[in-house]
């Protein structure tokens, strides 16, 4: 009999799904109607879980999977998995570390340029035939230059560093904050997030959300100010979304480029309706290249764990 594995979020690479189906009896949780009944019947026999960084797995579900050997996260965020509990149980939790760095940094830059150059509002203007109706150049407000902007990076991990490399190429002075100064980072360290916001034209959130929550609040947004931009490619809950929606609606910040939200897929109406926001549906790692690499790492983690080994990307064993 093939080992049984449980998929909590889909893998979008058909060849990888074929490979998984050849080796395992794959149960797709997101397609199961009566989830509680399914867990009662099959939970006991599940040996591996595949999940997304944002989806994670609840402690309650982990407790219903006694034969589990590995939680393979198809992503880098570990904030939705109780790592301490898994460590205590000797359960491998793996992440696709390094696989999505470049794509996430690329999208951060894309969102920042789109926000400050009003690319999406301009696209809507042309698409709706408004240009013909209002051909005078003054019909569209002037935008804000990106090159040379002071960029504050929140979280100088892999993604933060990749963002720094990119913005440096645009001649942007860089500051950053993190839990501590990093000796191998040449940029200006600012311990206090509010002070970093005050000294920045754009704040780019690249931090893990394992502990931090709501760190970008009204005070930080006001420090960023009416000419400042916020970009978030990390986790929605790093931001107090109510404060952000109010700041955007009132023009207390110039704009925001957001890939992630507190309660995905629900996005506050104030953020959806504003011309100051550029929005994405949590797509930063969603390229064929990166998702293929990520999925291959997931397959490898499951294979090693089910063969009794320690997956190289394990964070807990
Ligand atoms: C992934 C993410 O898109 O890596 C993460 O933690 O949230 C995302 O980049 C997601 O995990 C895909 O399943």
TrEMBL record:
Q: Which residues form the D-isomer specific 2-hydroxyacid dehydrogenase NAD-binding domain?
A: 109-284
This entry's Enzyme Commission designation comes to 1.1.1.215
**GO terms for MF:** gluconate 2-dehydrogenase activity
Q: Which Gene3D superfamilies match?
A: NAD(P)-binding Rossmann-like Domain
Question: Among its keywords, does the record have NAD?
Answer: yes
Q: Which PROSITE patterns match?
A: D_2_HYDROXYACID_DH_1 (PS00065)
Enumerate the spans annotated as D-isomer specific 2-hydroxyacid dehydrogenase catalytic domain.
46-312
Enumerate the UniProt keywords alphabetically: NAD, Oxidoreductase
As for family, the record states: Belongs to the D-isomer specific 2-hydroxyacid dehydrogenase family.
Please state what the protein is called.
Answer: 2-ketogluconate reductase
Biological source species: Cupriavidus respiraculi
């Amino acid at each position: 009999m093939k080992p049984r594995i449980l998929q909590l979020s889909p893998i979008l690479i058909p060849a990888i799904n074929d490979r998984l189906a050849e080796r395992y009896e794959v149960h797709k949780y997101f397609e199961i109607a009566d989830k509680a009944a399914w867990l009662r019947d099959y939970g006991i026999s599940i040996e591996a879980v595949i999940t997304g960084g944002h989806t994670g797995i609840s402690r309650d579900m982990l407790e219903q999977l006694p034969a589990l050997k590995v939680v393979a996260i198809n992503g880098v965020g570990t904030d939705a998995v109780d790592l301490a509990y898994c460590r205590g149980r000797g359960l491998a939790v793996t992440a696709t570390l390094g696989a999505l760095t470049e794509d996430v940094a690329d999208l951060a830059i894309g969102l920042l340029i789109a926000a400050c150059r009003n690319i999406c509002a301009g696209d809507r203007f042309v698409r709706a035939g408004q240009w013909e109706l209002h051909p005078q150049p003054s019909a569209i407000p002037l935008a804000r230059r990106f090159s040379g902007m002071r960029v504050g990076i929140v979280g100088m991990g892999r993604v933060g560093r990749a963002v720094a490399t990119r913005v440096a190429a645009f001649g942007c002075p860089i500051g950053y904050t993190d839990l501590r100064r990093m000796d191998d980072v040449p940029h200006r360290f600012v311990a206090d997030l509010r002070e970093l916001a005050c000294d920045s034209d754009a704040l780019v959130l690249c931090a893990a959300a394992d502990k931090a929550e709501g760190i970008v609040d009204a005070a930080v947004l006001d420090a960023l100010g009416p000419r400042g931009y916020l970009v978030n490619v990390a986790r929605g809950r790093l931001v107090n979304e109510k404060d952000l929606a109010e700041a955007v609606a009132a023009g207390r910040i110039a704009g925001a480029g957001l890939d992630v939200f507190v309660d995905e897929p629900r996005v506050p109406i104030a953020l959806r309706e504003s011309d100051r926001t550029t929005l994405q549906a949590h797509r930063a790692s969603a390229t064929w290249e990166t998702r293929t690499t990520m999925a291959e790492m997931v397959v490898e983690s499951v294979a090693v764990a089910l063969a009794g080994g320690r997956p190289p990307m394990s964070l807990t064993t």
